[in-house]
Every structure is written in structure tokens, then in C-alpha cells.
């Protein structure tokens, strides 16, 4: 019986016949109600033979023209209901107009107005309610309540309603929304589509007392702190957290269940949006020729994306990585005017190639992001570290003076503070040279320094994610190791802000928030993946890698900071160097490249940066 009732390919004419039967029943009911279920006067009963066919014919033609019977009943939604309501209303208006015509021409009403009104209300109610009852029965038989997964939706606004209806509409899913959570006190204890709305403090109790499989965050602009509270609470109850994507990402303006995604660890670590001085940044790059070195990297590519929104005259994308640079070019061509971009494949260590670039394009603003950044790799290859991070920076900086630029913004790292590895020391040497050159030349050389960025190439989070997908184990160097983290867009926003405010010679550091214990990060990623530690996946410790620190620093012990107008940007007061002295030392360091003697190179780096003390490295002996 159920199979016959809910047959997928039921002919549409059957739905039309049912709708007409509803109209017939409504007419009978209208007459009975009109005359209080008593005997119908003869004058009215005599008109039955004319009124009934006329009303049914009117409904038939309106249904046929509007195709109300063509909709799939089990998926009836608000649009279907609105169409049925409109068609019935127009049909009843037509019957009223007919009455007026007969009154004007013959002095009689062919159909009592009260009959028209009662029939209209009855037909509308029965047609709509029958469809929704049928829909509810279909889904109940398809997915019985006892087999459904309990879900809570955070957000009782329009997005929350759309999310619930999306779950209801998706026949392939077995979900039951048991509660809405909302921070608006005016909605507390109210019901939304029959579901009670609770405030946030009730979330813990709901998770404890109910078997909640998932919570879906539907709010589009939820503060980062609230999102983190939700995720932390759900992790304690092994409840998965999903979120609804921005409306702009919905397909054809409609949300589908497949678009609702799991929360990522980046969402747990993100902070509230940064407030930028948009006008000041725009003045820095608007209609300017801007060069971004390392444009295909994590930071460089995001800088390119953000700078593109400020209407540069020409944006030069420089990198030696061919494929990533091509991918970035294709992405930009889809979003911006291709004439705004110039893609250049080149190596910042090649002086002739870089001079040709400067001579040809005459960049006005430079963001220097090209660098080697992996600590263990550079520990094993010191010559490459100085060749790229020191010589590459020196070449670009010197050309910025020879072909005068308005400002030069260097991207540095927290590993340059009290460096314990070759990579950090090479970046500190580059910082020193840039600052000394800026003081001598008068060009605005600005340095920005920050910690790890979430999701960057080779960072810990993509590695953990890959290890989890492979079934583990997750490898951590030390259970006590901590790091500062910042999202890539956030870091680039602060770089643009610092670059715009810089007058020259400053070393800006960014507020990285609280340091994160890598072990805790791994455990949360395991839970967010729906897995159980030591059951589904293990964590093993491999020991600190050469040159690696347990705790990163943002400032040298002797350095002090002064605030800026931006709460997340500080100016570090660092030791100043004479250009002639540091230039001679760096030239001497670079000259060691040809000999390929690692100890000689590292020893000279330690002379330039006395605070450089190797850690867990073969170069520790050079400190004794």
C-alpha cells in the first residue's frame, strides 16, 4: 500500500483529479456551512446544476494553465504553496467578477459571495495541508524518526530556517532537527517551524541529555570567539560541527546539503576580523606598479589577491615556481582585468634577470615574500639559505635603491628572533641589511615579522590533515612544543596595513594571540575528523628536528616595542647597524657560497648575529 501511495512516477493527471475532488468537496461544505447544515432553499438548490460545473471548470482551467498539479508532492515547498495560493485567489476573484457581471446584466448573483469565500478558504486549506501531510508521511516512511540522526542548528534566523528546510528536503539524508540555538534573547523559548529555540547556555545541557550527532552553524557572521566556544563544547561530547557556506557560494541561490561543510581546525584558531585602514592601503597601491616576489607562495599569492582589490596600475607576479605561478595567473584572470597583471618567472638570486625586471617595469611598491622557510631543510643546506634569503633580498633591495621605489616591505619571521637555526639567522641578516640600507638611502624600507600561518605550504596543519587521511600516525616532535598561529589572509592584511603606515626603517611585529600547544592542536584535529585518539589514530613523538625551538619568540630580549594606531601591530625597537660595516660582512658571507663549506658559512652567520645559538644541531659546537 505504501509503495503504491508513494510511487515515484505517479501520473500527474491523478493529482489534478484529486485537486478537483477537493474543490468539489469544498463546494458541498460551503453550502452546508452557509445554511447551517439545514435544508438548502429551493432557489439555491435549483442553481446547483449550473454553479457546480461552472466552479469546477474554473478551477480546472486555472490548474491546467498554471500546472499546479505538475509539482512533485513529496517535495512541496514554499514556492509550490505560494503558486497554489495565487492560482486559487485569482480563480476566486474571477468568480466574484462573474457575479458582478450577472448582477449588472440580470440583477442576480449566480453564486452567493459567501459560498465563494467559504469554498476559497476551504480549498486553499485542504490543498496545501494535504500536500504537506503527504510530504511528512513520505519522509516518515522513508526515514522513520527512530532511525534519524539528531541535529541542532545554531542560528534561528533566515539562514537557520533555510538550513532546516534543506535537511527536510534532502530525502537521502536522515536528520531530525531537535533544537535551534540563538543568542538573541527575544527569540528565547519561541518555536520556529515547531522547533524550540534555546539560548547558548542551554547547548551543553542539550548535548548532554540528547544523542546529538551534529550541530550546524547557520549564522553567516558569527564572532570567532562564539564559534570557538561552540566547537570546544561539541568536541567534549564528540559532536561534529558543520557550517553553512556564504550565500554567495550557494548554487543558483539555493542551499544544498552537500554544501554544508565540516568545521576545520583553522576555524577554531581564527580571530575576529581585522579592522583595516582601507583608505590608507588604497593610497599605497592604487594606480601604482606593484611587485610581489615569491608571488606563488602561500603569503605571496594571498598578498596578490588582496592587492588586486585595491586597483593597482600593474601588479607584477615574480616567482621561479612555474606551475603554482600559472595556477595563480589563471585564478586572477577569472576575477580581474588580465591587463593589470604581469607574470614573470625568475629567480631573485639572479642579478641580471632582476635588473632587467626593474629596468623594464620600474616598480613603485615592493612586497618581498620570496624566501626559503623550512627550518630542517635550511639546516642541511646553509649555502642555499644565504643565497636566497640573504643574497636574494640584497639584490632586490639594492635595485630598489638604484631604480628608486616608494616603499619596500619585507616579509620576515619570528624565527629571526634569537635564532636557533640557519633559516632564522638568514632572515635576521636580511632584516639587518634592509634596515641599514634604508637608513643610508632614504628609501622607505619596512620589515614585518610574524609567526606560523595556518595552511601555508609545508605547515603543520596540512601535514596533520594528510596524516589523518592516511590513517595515521600523527607525528609530533615534542609533547611540549608550542607555536603562534595566524591565518594567511589575516597575516597579509596586517602586512598591507603595516606597509601603508610605515615611514621607513620600522620593524613591525604582529599580535599573534596566544601560543598553541601542537599536541592539543593534533588532538582537536582528530576529534574534528570524527576519530578517537589511540583507537582510530595514534600520536607518536619523533624528537626536535635540527635547529627547532620548543617555544617561538616574537621579540629579542633586548628589544622593546611601541604601539601604533592599530592594536595588532607594534613597532620593535631593534639594534641599528652601520651600512658599510654590515654590507662588508654580508658580502663576505655570500662569497663563501662558492666554497660550499657549511661550517664556515654558519660560523660567519654567527659572527654577524651574535644571538644566534644553534639548538639540536650539528652546529652547536660552533657556539663553544
Describe the structure.
The chain is elongated, with a radius of gyration of 35 Å. It is α/β, with parallel strands linked by helices and 624 residues long. The protein folds into three domains: 2-142, no CATH class; 145-263, Rossmann fold, CATH 3.40.50; 278-620, NAD(P)-binding Rossmann-like Domain (Rossmann fold, 3-Layer(aba) Sandwich), CATH 3.40.50.720. 47% of the residues lie in helices and 15% in strands.
Give the amount of beta strand, in percent.
15-25%
Shape call: elongated
CATH homologous group name of the largest domain: NAD(P)-binding Rossmann-like Domain
CATH architecture assignment name of the largest domain = 3-Layer(aba) Sandwich
Biggest sheet layout: 9 strands, mixed
Strand line-up across the major sheet: 10-9-8-11-12-13-18-22-21
Look at the helices and sheets and give the structural class.
alpha/beta
What is the CATH fold-level name of the largest domain? Rossmann fold
Number of helices: 22
Helix content: 40-55%
Descriptors for this entry?
seven-stranded mixed β-sheet, 624 residues, disordered N terminus, alpha/beta, 22 helices, Rossmann fold, nine-stranded mixed β-sheet, 22 strands
Amino acid at each position: 500500500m505504501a509503495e503504491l501511495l508513494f510511487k515515484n512516477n505517479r501520473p500527474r493527471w491523478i493529482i489534478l483529479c484529486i485537486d478537483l475532488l477537493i474543490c468539489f468537496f469544498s463546494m458541498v461544505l460551503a453550502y452546508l456551512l452557509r445554511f447551517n447544515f439545514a435544508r438548502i432553499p429551493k432557489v439555491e438548490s435549483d442553481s446547483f446544476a449550473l454553479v457546480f460545473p461552472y466552479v469546477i471548470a474554473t478551477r480546472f482551467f486555472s490548474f491546467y494553465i498554471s500546472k499546479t498539479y505538475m509539482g512533485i508532492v513529496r517535495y512541496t515547498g514554499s514556492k509550490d504553496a505560494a503558486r497554489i495560493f495565487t492560482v486559487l485567489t485569482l480563480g476566486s476573484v474571477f468568480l466574484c467578477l462573474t457575479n458582478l457581471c450577472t448582477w449588472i446584466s440580470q440583477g442576480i448573483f449566480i453564486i452567493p459571495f459567501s459560498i465563494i469565500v467559504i469554498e476559497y478558504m476551504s480549498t486553499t486549506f485542504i490543498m496545501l495541508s494535504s500536500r504537506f501531510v503527504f510530504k511528512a508521511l513520505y519522509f516518515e516512511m522513508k526515514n522513520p524518526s527512530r532511525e534519524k540522526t539528531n541535529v541542532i542548528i545554531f542560528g534561528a534566523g533566515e539562514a537557520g530556517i533555510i538550513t532546516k528546510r534543506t535537511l527536510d528536503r534532502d530525502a537521502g539524508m536522515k536528520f531530525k532537527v531537535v533544537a535551534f540555538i540563538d543568542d538573541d534573547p527575544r527569540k528565547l523559548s519561541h518555536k520556529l517551524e515547531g522547533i524550540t529555540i534555546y539560548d547558548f547556555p542551554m547547548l551543553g545541557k542539550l548535548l548532554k541529555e540528547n544523542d546529538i550527532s551534529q550541530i550546524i552553524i547557520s549564522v553567516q557572521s558569527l564572532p570567532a570567539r562564539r564559534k570557538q566556544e561552540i566547537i570546544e563544547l561539541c568536541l567534549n561530547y564528540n559532536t561534529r560541527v558543520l557550517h553553512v557556506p556564504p550565500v554567495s557560494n550557494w548554487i543558483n541561490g539555493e542551499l544544498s546539503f552537500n554544501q554544508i561543510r565540516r568545521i576545520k581546525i583553522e576555524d577554531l584558531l581564527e580571530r575576529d576580523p581585522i579592522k583595516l585602514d582601507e583608505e590608507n592601503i588604497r593610497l599605497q597601491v592604487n594606480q601604482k606598479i606593484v611587485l610581489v616576489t615569491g608571488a606563488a607562495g602561500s603569503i605571496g599569492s594571498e598578498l596578490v589577491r588582496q592587492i588586486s582589490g585595491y586597483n593597482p596600475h600593474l601588479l607584477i607576479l615574480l616567482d621561479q615556481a612555474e606551475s603554482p605561478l600559472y595556477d595563480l595567473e589563471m585564478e586572477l584572470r577569472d576575477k580581474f582585468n588580465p591587463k593589470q597583471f604581469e607574470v614573470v618567472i625568475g629567480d631573485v638570486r639572479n642579478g641580471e634577470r632582476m635588473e632587467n625586471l626593474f629596468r623594464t617595469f620600474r616598480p613603485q611598491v615592493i612586497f618581498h615574500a620570496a624566501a626559503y622557510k623550512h627550518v630542517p631543510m635550511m639546516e642541511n643546506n646553509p649555502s642555499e639559505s644565504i643565497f636566497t634569503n640573504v643574497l636574494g633580498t640584497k639584490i632586490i633591495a639594492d635595485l630598489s635603491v638604484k631604480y628608486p621605489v616608494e616603499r619596500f616591505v619585507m616579509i620576515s619571521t619570528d624565527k629571526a628572533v634569537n635564532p636557533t637555526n640557519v633559516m632564522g639567522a638568514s632572515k635576521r641578516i636580511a632584516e639587518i641589511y634592509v634596515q641599514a640600507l634604508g637608513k643610508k638611502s632614504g628609501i622607505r624600507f619596512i620589515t614585518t615579522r610574524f609567526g606560523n600561518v595556518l595552511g601555508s605550504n609545508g605547515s603543520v596543519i596540512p601535514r596533520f590533515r594528510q596524516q589523518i587521511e592516511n590513517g595515521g600516525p600523527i607525528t609530533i616532535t615534542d609533547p611540549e612544543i608550542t607555536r603562534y598561529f595566524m591565518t594567511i589572509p589575516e597575516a597579509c592584511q596586517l602586512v598591507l596595513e603595516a606597509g601603508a603606515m610605515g615611514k621607513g626603517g620600522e620593524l613591525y611585529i604582529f599580535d599573534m594571540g596566544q601560543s598553541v600547544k601542537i599536541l592539543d592542536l593534533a588532538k582537536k584535529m582528530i576529534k574534528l575528523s570524527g576519530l578517537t585518539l589511540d583507537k582510530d589514530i595514534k600520536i607518536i613523538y619523533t624528537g626536535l628536528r635540527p635547529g627547532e625551538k620548543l617555544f617561538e619568540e616574537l621579540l629579542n630580549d633586548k628589544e622593546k616595542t611601541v604601539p601604533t594606531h592599530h592594536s595588532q601591530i607594534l613597532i620593535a625597537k631593534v639594534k641599528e647597524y652601520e651600512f658599510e660595516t654590515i654590507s662588508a660582512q654580508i658580502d663576505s658571507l655570500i662569497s663563501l657560497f662558492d666554497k660550499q663549506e657549511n661550517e664556515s658559512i654558519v660560523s660567519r652567520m654567527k659572527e654577524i648575529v651574535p644571538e644566534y645559538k644553534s639548538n639540536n644541531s650539528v652546529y652547536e659546537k660552533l657556539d663553544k
